[in-house]
Amino acid sequence: MANATQHLETALVGTWTAIPDAPQVQKPDRPSEGLYRMRVNSDGSLTPLGVVKMKSPSWIVKSRDGRFAYTTNEEVEGTVTALAIDANGEVTVLNQVSSHGQQPTHATLSPDGKFLFVANYSVAKGGAGVTVLPVMNDGKLGAEVQHIAFEAGSGAVQDRQQSGHAHSTTFTPDGHYLFAADLGDDKLHAFRYHADRAQPLEADSARDVRFSAGAGPRHMVFSADGQHAYVTVEMSGEVVVFDVKDGHLTQKSAVKLNAENASAAFKSASGILFSPDGHFIVTANRGDDNHLVVFAVQQDGSLSAPKRYAAGGIEPRAFAFDATGKHLYVTNVFTNSITRFDFDAQSGALTPAGVAATVSTPTDIKFFN
């Protein structure tokens, strides 16, 4: 007999706490107050439970065991907040430390859980780069132990690439290498990871990856076996596919997210993730497009022709599957909504299920059991 008091999943929703100044923004009734906690109901809907007040917790990193989370606070004086998540989904702030940069927009934990690697995007010149923060046994973050500045920009897109802009940090599945996407310099910076060193990152320029001028690499994922990598390139509106061998990336192909419209307004790639079984890749294109794009992953790592689905909102920045793998949730920043899609694991098809929740300027969503 089913347990009537069965514990339901909890969602944490990151936001910007300042309303963006952009033409497509639909101004909310009030600005966000921070990190929102929501119950995931059995029908897939989301019920607000409360808010942890803080400034612009724009990206959420979940520890492997789900007991802790880390948010990048995307402000000019960047910070990172450590959180404890208890068995009932209650959230406690552990501590907050400097990101040693401006507008930290992404972070990742090392596979061994020893360090958090923060990507400081920095709109202005001089605040971009990767900062390494140690993770304590109690989940708290220690002070910065290493900082690598991203100063040079490619200059190809005048208002976006006058300097470096670190947009994400991603580990190879074996934990040997970290790649940092630099939108400003059209480059993936490669680093060897040394868990036993006080400063664990060692630059490995032989494994760096250069993109075409003005492409703007943003987010990255590896296949579970580590043999293939996929990178969203924001300003060229593509997913670039790589073969991977011993940490070296060799470009295999590039697939457009919108093959029908080549104008710059329809080129704004955002996040990327695998379906739970690894058979499909989901990404999104923003700007004037605002579609989710689904690819089947072929046996050789290449991608099928894309299937496109209207995101149900403007500026679909991030998305995540719930624990069942049956529902995909999308944060639409400019329309202050989280939309839900039912996912068919056999075909990769997405079926829109409407707005799951209304939240001011939602930027990320992660699920905790």
Task: Based on the model shown, name its key terms.
369 residues, Lactonase_7-beta_prop, mainly beta, 4-stranded antiparallel β-sheet, globular, 5-stranded antiparallel β-sheet, disordered N terminus
Explain how this protein is built:
- The protein contains no helices and 29 strands.
- The chain has strands at 10-15, 34-40, 46-53, 57-62, 68-73, 79-85, 91-98, 104-109, 115-120, 129-134, 146-149, 166-171, 177-182, 187-193, 201-203, 209-210, 217-222, 228-233, 238-245, 248-256, 269-274, 280-285, 291-296, 307-310, 316-321, 327-332, 337-343, 350-358, 362-368.
- Strands 12, 13, 14, 15 and 16 form a 5-stranded antiparallel β-sheet that branches. A 4-stranded antiparallel β-sheet has the order 3-2-1-29, with no helix packed on it. Strands 4-5-6-7 form a 4-stranded antiparallel β-sheet, with no helix packed on it.
- It is globular.
- The two termini are 21 Å apart.
Short description:
The protein is an all-beta fold. Helix content is 0%, strand content 49%. The strands form seven sheets. Strands 12, 13, 14, 15 and 16 form a five-stranded antiparallel beta sheet that branches. Strands 3-2-1-29 form a four-stranded antiparallel beta sheet, with no helix packed on it. Strands 4-5-6-7 form a four-stranded antiparallel beta sheet, with no helix packed on it.
